[in-house]
Design goal:
There is one protein chain. 20% of the residues lie in helices and 35% in strands. It is of the alpha+beta class. It folds into two domains: 72 residues, Ribosomal protein L6 (Outer Surface Protein A, domain 3, Alpha-Beta Complex), CATH 3.90.930.12; 83 residues, Ribosomal protein L6 (Outer Surface Protein A, domain 3). The strands form four sheets. The chain has a four-stranded antiparallel β-sheet, covered by helices on one side. A three-stranded antiparallel β-sheet has the order 1-6-5, with helices on one face. It is elongated, with a radius of gyration of 21 Å.
Length: 180
């Protein structure tokens, strides 16, 4: 058995789940998510506990078992508590601002870079403009938006300037050595 796949998912109060064959809809206080899984995976809801089952021990079914359970767990956690991903802006003159619901990045280009917040995503910035938080209920969308923000100016290895995930360690390189 998959160690992750066999774990039950406890459904918190305020979260409604509807299972229709191989598709699932999860609705909670933060929002609503839907996903369709391969027909082989079995989803069953009993007394506030959701379990995922697989039909056989074939390699493909074993792989899908843990993945299906993780996706459903992320959906339940997202609509009940939400997710957050933090990024840091590092560099002289580099900063970020909010313009309505959109994020403005001033990271060394001749123009500011504007990133629009899609539905279900909110940006939060500290008072210095050096830390960006991406918040929402869809874990996959949050990760994609955070990756898009980081790709505007990825951290460079010599001075460490750029946008990085909070806690990300950038491997630094030595610069040119002078003449002897």
């Amino acid at each position: 058995m998959s160690r992750i796949g066999k774990l039950p998912i406890n459904i918190p109060a305020g979260v409604e789940i509807s299972i229709n064959g191989s598709s699932i809809k999860v609705k909670g206080p933060k929002g609503e998510l839907a996903h369709t899984f391969p027909a082989a995976m079995g989803l069953s809801l009993e007394a506030g506990v959701l379990t995922v089952s697989r039909p056989s021990d074939e390699r493909e079914h074993r792989a899908l078992h843990g993945m299906t359970r993780s996706i459903v767990n992320n959906m339940v956690h997202g609509v009940s508590a939400g997710f957050e991903k933090a990024l840091e802006v590092e560099g002289v003159g580099y900063r970020s601002e909010m313009k309505g619901n959109n994020l403005m990045l001033f990271v060394g280009y001749s123009h500011p870079v504007e990133i629009e917040a899609p539905a279900g995503i909110a940006f939060e910035i500290d008072n210095r403009g050096r830390e960006i938080k991406v918040k929402g209920y869809d874990k996959q969308l949050i990760g994609q938006i955070a990756a898009n923000i980081r790709s505007v100016r990825p951290p460079e290895p010599y001075k460490g300037k750029g946008i990085r995930y909070a806690g990300e360690v950038i491997r630094r390189k030595a610069g040119k050595s002078g003449k002897k």
